[in-house]
Amino acid sequence: MIISVTLNPSIDKYYEVDELLPHQVMRAKVVSNTAGGKGMNVSRVAALAGEAVTAMGFLGGHCGNYFESLVDVSNLNCAFTKVRGETRSCINIHDLATNLSTEVLEPGEPVTAEDLARFLTDFEKYLPLADVVTISGSLPKGVKPVFYSQLINLAKKQGKKTILDSSGLALAAGIGAQPTMIKPNLHEIRQLFLEDISTTEDLVQIGQKLNAKGVEYVVISLGEDGALMVCPEGVFSGKPPKLKIVNAVGCGDSMVAGFACSFQRNYTVEDSLRFAVAISAANALTARTGSFQEEDLKNLLKEVRIQRL
Questions:
Q1: Could you tell me the residue range of the domain that residue 77 belongs to?
Q2: What pTM was estimated for this model as a whole?
């Protein structure tokens, strides 16, 4: 089983408009609501890929109840810790004229020390049942960056593989706990090291520095160019074919889901990267955030190029 942690989930609202016109009234052509947040996207994609997933984090209020009603994948179990504050919403407006998206992200309500203690009790209850733990996204107000480190340490003590996908102070603190894998994007790597990182050689050096700090797999997502993996087995590039992107939101989360499934199935390094890049690209071909079509995934698995650098 895979445990996915989403401490700051959201109801993701997707609007499709002919053209994004600031300061004007626009009418959406397509509207969809999804149980979202980075970790929830991981949960749904991993479950759609056939793995049993338990989704954990904080939910609250009427929006929290609505969030759970939107979970429609059979092998995805919601085990969220309930809090008083309303669960947030995030908006993605897709502009058909430019094929670009604009996002508005609510910060989320604060959680208390009591909420955190109850979550840890819930987390430790499910942890023995899992093989892989993914920890994704931002932290709600009231949660210190070291909290992710605490979760990683709890999972490692029970021999669980851990994947951390966060940014800023939460990512920096989490790296200190030596998760099995991290998946920053290029912006997050630059933010972490405060360096002008632009070449593949720069990224490889950064990845090797992180390997030396105890992170076994450093995967840097590169958008349409796929991902770069730096690990004890070597340095690998995974590139998808050129695609006509429908919705790029959730592609990084889908990549995390792909690696979680790969760890669960004991795939080789090359097969793990191929599967993760393919399922990430498949997510880009569907309007629903954190989803994919099985036929797209099958086709993309044949077309993703893996290269040892």
A1: 2-308
A2: 0.91
